[in-house]
Fold:
Amino acid sequence: MNDVVSYVMDGEIAVVTVNNPPVNALSQAVRQGLLDAIRRSADDGSRAVLILCEGRTFIAGADITEFGKPMAEPYLPDLLNEIEASEKLVVAAIHGTALGGGFETALASHYRIAVDSAKVGLPEVKLGLLPGAGGTQRAPRIAGVAASLELILSGAPIPAAKAGQFGLVDKVVPGDLGAAAREYVRELLDAGTPVRRTSEQAVEAVGDDVFDTAAASVAKRARGQTAPHRIIECVRTAMTTPFAEGQKRERELFMESMQDPQSKALQHVFFAEREAAKVVGIDKDTPLRDINSMGVIGGGTMGGGIAMSFANAGIPVTLIEINDEALERGLAIIDSNYAGSVKRGKLSEDKAADCRGRITGATDYAALADVDLVIEAVFEDPELKKEIFAKLDAACKPGAILATNTSYQDVNAIAAATGRPEDVLGMHFFSPAHIMKLLEVVRGDETADDALATVMKLSKKIRKVAVVSGVCYGFIGNRMLQGYFREAQLCLVEGGSPESVDKAMFDWGMAMGPISVADLAGLDVGYKARQALPADERGDPAAYRVPDVLVEMGRLGQKSGKGFYNYDPETRRPSPDPEVQAVIEREAAALGIERREIDAQEVVDRLIFALANEGFRILEEGIAQRPGDIDIVYLYGYGFPAWRGGPMHYVESVGLDKALARIEEFRERFGDENWAPAPLLEKLVAEGRSLKDWADRK
Ligand code: 3H9
Structure:
């Protein structure tokens, strides 16, 4: 047919093969090839059409790189309607992941066969979209309303066998799909099986409660998102109107989603996540070091979580503690974490035992002589870390990668404590490390390319999303957070309450408000850090007086049952405490601050623009490789809403000029020290350029 779709007769079967690496996305050429194929099959003597794919997967969806560009014919919904309307029996043969438009192609085919390892799904919601090529209309006709809502609203792929239970796949086979699919088509032909057009079937009616339950669940798990509501409407329309009408509505709502800034943000996230894995200046074919075993220094919460991440990925771990007692304590925490995972149904008992079995303990660095990687996860004491690295240098074999999990310290100084700084880098995990997806990989001045490339690759294996950061205090995420937290505290003393500041940010989309985050992290952490500094180096007292007073009152945060909020000992549910509000008002008066009404928009702008302003500095200094990397850090490490695309995408979507104007307004009102605009932001606005343009031409 063309370069990406071939057409070969096998007896009476027209075998149509898509070959469009890497994932057989439905580019214009693929759509055209399929259309030509289905038209050719109409009068070439074939009795059936078998659609299958070369390479690692069946069609994985529409071609996302075409989004935002003018749409080219043939349009996918029309193509799929024509496939379904074929008088010849059309069978789709699925391997890999049949996703989005790919699975819709299969649903428009008359029958579907899948290899048992295949998965199918409609993940459009993750891109802020809805299945726009008949998926919302055909899935309910086959699988019913409830199952379809679950499939489309979650966006999660399901295994072929499960799809089989819903009728979404007709036959699941082990082994060689090509041969089994041909045999299946012949069986259907021999049995005289007629074509089966899903659009001609009715949707089994369900009560309003099914839609209400879906809407309630969306309000919770997809707070703030628009696409899920459009999906519910489409599925309801499928139930209440004929196919053609439903499809028309689906198309309208799909186009509406395409224009929605949420979808643009989520598409940005999709590509940013994949881009983040690539290290500028390191060839993708750089030979990697083998990582078959690893060690963790420190069995605290962080070390234990790191050990679990590796054990869960099949890599044996040696956990080092200073003495038997500390080791036992560390291993006991790991045991209880695994027990928790089993209890919550996240891991089977066997799997948990298997993973736990990969973790052994030791108190002597000699146990690390043969490991390929060590991650140090002791508390933030720079001298202690240097001491540990000197010991690791002596104990570990040449070529072993030595990593620190520090959140703030100078990785170059730590590397200099060894005779092999090229093997040293930072691996900054986020707590709880076995759950949180983000990994900041800190590239020291001397870090060898192959060590860095190895850790980036390894991060996928341990199911983390890795972002490279240069060396600076707090790296990308925690460095940016300083301005965010500062503004949260300032809003509090200038006129807010813990609830009003938290609500502004939560309603905007953050997973948690900043005051609640401070309580969760423990107010004593910042307090201790400040106490260690001379008074004139602690920053703006208005930004820390309140938490310091709370710590001095014994209110350390969630861990002491009281911080900015009081916490129910059973449920940990927070409730406001008038005593805290009194502290806020007293401290404001002592600082000479006249309290005023602060609306939610001001809270949001101050916190988010402070965050992004630092982001521009981080970019200009080359600490982050690209704006999207910063966005990924915030989405996976700090509960930033994905549908806003991350702080840098958000500022770009607001308009750099508008963001700069607001920052300048804050500078006027609150002073230069906190609000001097980042030079890169000023430069881009002056030149009328976007951040994307700057990143592309860097
Ligand atoms: C849709 O279908 C809308 C329709 O309902 C209606 C239309 C009217 N397009 O993830 P990987 C690239 S919406 C273009 O690293 P893996 C990806 O960027 C779509 N490119 O591999 C990467 O490029 P690079 C619904 C795509 O094995 C390379 O392929 N479908 C697309 O870990 C490898 O990707 C989806 O949302 C695409 N659709 O995972 C599925 N997909 O190497 C999205 C991937 O240059 N895709 N690329 O960085 C996925 O979930 C995963 O890529 C997949 C493979 C599971 C397929």
